[in-house]
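Input.
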Amino acid sequence: DVVGQIVNFGSLENKIIKGKDNMRLLVKLRDAKSIYFVCAYSISSGYNSTHILLNPTLDFIEEFKSSLPDDSLVLDDSSQWSVSTATSIRARFFVLNERLTIREIIDSTLVDTFVTLGTISTNTERGWQYLSCKYHNKKIMPTTNVDANGRPLFFCNTCDKEHSDVISRYCAG
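Output.
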């Protein structure tokens, strides 16, 4: 676990790792003894994910805050960092990258970052999705039973139990 005060951060970067996009944010932290660490945070799927808590109200965090030097810290000045707010990072992404339609991206021969905006509508028929067990990610079967709140129950063969908490999964392909 790492607890620190953010003293600088860079802009969002897209790194290709194992053929997949991985958005990273470089962050410089300091601990209570003013020792500095440079970290790279990335957002991933639910597996191997990292929990990042910003300004949590926990006892040991309050102790950490009170142990920091009272120096009204201004963000570190470094030419290697592009210091900005999260809002301006997002705004810069949309301003700096060319906006294209999906067709224009498909027809493009350029390797670059593009922005496309659209509305995605979903088909409510179940042919492309299925319900799965929240605990095992396996397909579940509906039953005629309901729970105490009147919600329908579904049977999971892996748990050998009925559950009302299920997750929609989507078929790829």
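The chain has two domains: 5-83, 126-170.
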